[in-house]
TrEMBL record:
Pfam families: Beta-barrel_RND_2 (PF25954). One of its GO terms (cellular component) is cell envelope. The keyword Transport applies. Keywords: Signal, Transport. One of its GO terms (biological process) is copper ion export. This is Efflux RND transporter periplasmic adaptor subunit. Belongs to the membrane fusion protein (MFP) (TC 8.A.1) family. One of its GO terms (molecular function) is transmembrane transporter activity. Residues 229-300 form the CusB-like beta-barrel domain. It comes from Pontibacter mangrovi. Residues 1-27 form the signal peptide. It comes from the Bacteria.
Amino acid sequence: MKKLIKSLSIPMLFLLAACSSKQPAEAVETTAASTATVQLTETQLQNAGVETGKLQQRPVSAVLQVNGKLDVPPQGLISVSVPLGGYLKKSTLLPGMEVKKGQVLAVMEDQQYIQLQQDYLTAKTKLAFLEQEHKRQQELNQSKASSDKVYQQTKADYQSQRVLVKALAEKLRLLGLNPDRLSESSLSRSIQLYSPIHGFVSRVFVNPGKYVVPSDVLFELIDPSDIHVNLQVFEKDVDKLHIGQKVLARSASNPSKVYPSEIIYISRDIAPDRTVEVHCHLQQQDKTLVPGTFVNAEIEVQRQDALVLPEEAIVQFENKDFMFASKGGGLFEMVEAPTGITEHGYTELNLPPGSNLREQAYATKGAYALLMKLKNTSEEE
């Protein structure tokens, strides 16, 4: 972790050099440069835990920081309604409750359910009669004992009744009633609504005794098996993304837990705030996740080799990054560090080709102790 020291001032370090009377500019610069050093004995080095090492070549990734939320696709959000409407007789659902597929969600009542069952049984009885009449007229017509007109009318009535019975049967199935098991003794004024999925109750819109129409939604259910991450990425960064790219998501409520994901869809629609929706699939589903939860995410946009030092070798001072170059014999010089990406405990250094800083050895451990020693020395002076 980089250390921020606000109380230390470069001018303080170079105070003695600045107080020299009327030195040439070159001399002042040389004196200042030599002042930004710290000398430790062998014992002090051991006590401070100072270790040195050269720059390493490691692959680092550029990371894009974005925000978003957990979401479910349209097919994962189920709205439960009643095709013919009715009164809610009974329901014990509350938001957040878990439901299993086939579980009874509610019991509905209405006289139209009785009427529909009655119409079906009556139509089915009439169909049996018309079927027999059709067969009889067909035989009479073949023996010329009945006219073609009578036979055709009987046939038309029979076919129309078949259509009516089938239509009524489908209406019963919409209500969850099995027409094949319906009889005079099984007529009921109530129906049951069953859960079409295994999931959770998101919202409840009704209470017992309330009358609902077919367009009313009684409950909303969520299928947790397909929760995904919906990220908002600024337009300028979209060209850095591609399908299959790895994403590390963290919920705002529990940032220590990481949810590995990958990009499955990049929207082509730009919102008014110049952002684009990027949908990511969780590599492992977690039933504890709640849709709508805000998340922070890191997207790895590129990977390349770079010169790095351990993260603890870099100290921050006066809003700048520094490292300590080893000059041998326990002498260290504080050098400004042109830092880049920090990843997995290592910090990238953007040093130009041919720079003598590339060949230096640096304090890889104990850099903060060196900074404190330098501060104390300057205060004593």
